[in-house]
Write a structure and sequence with these properties.
By secondary structure, the chain is mainly alpha-helical. The protein is 47% helix and 0% strand. The longest helix has 11 residues.
């Protein structure tokens, strides 16, 4: 699977017009840095039930061998 080519005109409009970067500053950035500055970075999605269960298994509320019963 190939990566689609970068849309340089759109990136230039974003950097030079919308973010008001100077040309030298724009060309010094990587596309990933530009997207981060524009708030278009890949943010994690919503917390799903599956992700919550994965996190609960990875970070349990108690150590192995400890009881869930607070009276014990």
């Amino acid at each position: 699977m190939s990566t689609p080519p970068l849309d340089w005109p759109a990136l230039m409009r974003l950097g030079l017009r919308d973010l008001r970067l100077r040309p030298g500053d724009f060309w010094a950035l990587t596309p990933a840095e530009l997207m981060l500055m524009a708030g278009l970075d890949a943010a994690p999605g919503p917390l799903t039930r599956a992700r919550l269960e994965e996190l609960a298994a990875r970070y349990p509320d108690h150590r192995k061998g400890e009881s869930d019963d607070p009276n014990k």
